[in-house]
């Protein structure tokens, strides 16, 4: 019975697994689906979300400093040799003499509870004020991480598509060249063509096959990179639909406000945190005041007091205390001043980073806009070149069949047509990558999920 259940379970598991693989392999992987998968599975995105979760625990830790601190304590002490004290005998009616007396008991046991409550501590108050900023910092950092994941996935997604397009072009060229080879071979068999012509066609087909193998290898490497940036198992098969690679004119608006960019907002939050850090260091100049209280129970006697009674010579008593602790800093060797100045330098350093980041973000937008404009022109030119090269190839092929063009002319036309198609594909890729850069510079990478 157990074997039957085990076989049934294994059969179900293998069937389910094959269904998953089959679904992954047959369903087209759109850019939106790739990005969604990456945001859910990529380690960087997961760690950023964990940082947001961890920030809540950091805030709880800061808040705990403003709450009462309660501790329980206990002790058990054995004194094998009691300390001897020398006392003036006049206190006992024997002036002019000294008395040696031992105080205490062989065994002492105690238990108690202590409480401390901060009443005034500027550093605690500063930490509480910084708690909300800490949460916002990690939330913005999570958003920035997601944008970085989206950018990497989008760029690699389009790169995979281009490599597959190049492979399709080579396959098509191989088929066309095979037809020419058959024609030349027929002519050679009938004495209408030279053997060198047939050899040239065979060499070209061999070169195409070599290029094809290289492209297949590049596709595999590029797909592996895409799966890595998605957080997808490398063995998973993916299918990218052709409709995902249409080149559409991008909206070229005025330069966006860099102060709305995630990179800038993150640095500004970091500046706020550094300001709080400086304030917390300054708090060391302020006095601190705290309430302390304790209640204790002590037992003493010649034997272990834990379970003994007065009849055994062990006596228990309790005591308590309530007080205020005031600490006023007077001189710290200029250590606090040095730390305050270090914190100030950190703030000014970050402010320079903020200025540099603003320039960098402006540069990214200007460069992306320029690349978009140039690539639109390039795509138009390459598209026209591809059309012309196709027409030339068609006419040259007809002329060759009629004996009006040489084999060299035909091979040159085929090479020109393939090169024109490759140039067009590369131009579209350059446009799509520039488009991603433009969307990023506008802080709108999340729109790729729409």
Can you tell me about this structure?
There is one protein chain. It is built from 8 helices and 6 strands; from the N terminus they run H-H-H-E-E-E-E-H-H-H-E-E-H-H. The protein is α+β, with helices and mostly antiparallel strands and 450 residues long. It has a single domain, classed as Outer membrane efflux proteins (OEP), CATH 1.20.1600. It has a 4-stranded antiparallel sheet with strand order 1-4-5-6. Helix 2 crosses helix 4, helix 3 runs antiparallel to helix 4 and helix 4 packs antiparallel against helix 8. 20% of the residues are buried.
Q: What is the topology?
A:
Layout: H1 2-26, H2 31-41, H3 43-64, E1 69-78, E2 84-88, E3 98-102, E4 107-120, H4 122-189, H5 195-230, H6 262-282, E5 288-301, E6 315-327, H7 335-401, H8 407-441
Antiparallel strand pairs: 1-4, 2-3, 4-5, 5-6
Helix pairs in contact: 2-4, 3-4, 4-5, 4-6, 4-8, 6-7, 7-8
């Amino acid at each position: 019975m157990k074997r039957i259940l085990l076989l049934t379970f294994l059969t179900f598991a293998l069937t389910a697994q094959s269904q998953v693989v089959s679904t992954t392999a047959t369903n087209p992987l759109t850019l939106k689906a790739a990005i969604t998968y990456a945001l859910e599975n990529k380690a960087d995105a997961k760690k950023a979300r964990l940082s947001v979760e961890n920030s809540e625990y950091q805030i709880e830790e800061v808040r705990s400093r403003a709450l009462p601190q309660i501790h329980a304590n206990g002790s058990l002490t054995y004194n094998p040799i009691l300390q001897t004290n020398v006392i003036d005998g006049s206190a006992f009616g024997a002036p002019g003499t000294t008395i040696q007396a031992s105080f205490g008991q062989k065994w002492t046991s105690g238990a108690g509870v202590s409480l401390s409550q901060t009443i005034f501590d500027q550093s605690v108050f500063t930490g509480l004020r910084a708690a909300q900023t800490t949460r916002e910092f990690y939330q913005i950092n999570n958003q920035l991480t997601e944008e970085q994941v989206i950018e990497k996935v989008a760029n690699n997604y389009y790169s995979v598509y281009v490599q597959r397009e190049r492979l399709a072009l080579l396959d098509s060229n191989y088929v066309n060249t095979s037809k020419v080879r058959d024609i030349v071979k027929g002519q050679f068999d009938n004495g209408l063509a030279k053997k060198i012509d047939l050899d040239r066609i065979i060499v070209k087909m061999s070169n195409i096959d070599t290029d094809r193998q290289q492209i297949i290898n590049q596709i595999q490497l590029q797909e592996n990179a895409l799966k890595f940036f998605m957080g997808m198992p490398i063995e998973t098969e993916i299918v990218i639909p052709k409709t995902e690679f249409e080149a559409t004119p991008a909206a070229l608006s005025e330069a966006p406000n860099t102060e709305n960019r995630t990179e800038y907002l993150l640095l500004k939050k970091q500046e706020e945190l550094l300001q709080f850090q400086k304030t917390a260091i300054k708090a060391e100049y302020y006095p601190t005041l705290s309430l302390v209280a304790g209640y204790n129970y002590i037992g003493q006697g010649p034997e272990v007091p834990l379970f003994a009674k007065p009849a055994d010579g062990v006596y228990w008593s309790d005591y308590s205390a309530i007080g205020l602790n005031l600490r006023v800093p007077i001189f710290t060797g200029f250590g606090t001043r040095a730390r305050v100045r270090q914190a100030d330098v950190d703030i000014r350093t970050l402010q320079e980073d903020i200025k540099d980041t603003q320039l960098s973000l402006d540069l990214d937008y200007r460069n992306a806009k320029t690349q978009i404009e140039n690539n639109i022109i390039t795509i138009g030119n390459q598209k026209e070149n591809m059309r012309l090269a196709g027409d030339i190839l068609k006419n040259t092929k007809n002329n060759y069949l009629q004996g009006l063009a040489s084999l060299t002319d035909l091979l040159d036309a085929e090479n020109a047509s393939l090169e024109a198609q490759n140039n067009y594909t590369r131009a579209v890729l350059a446009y799509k990558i520039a488009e991603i850069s433009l969307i990023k510079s506008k802080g709108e990478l999340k729109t790729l999920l729409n």
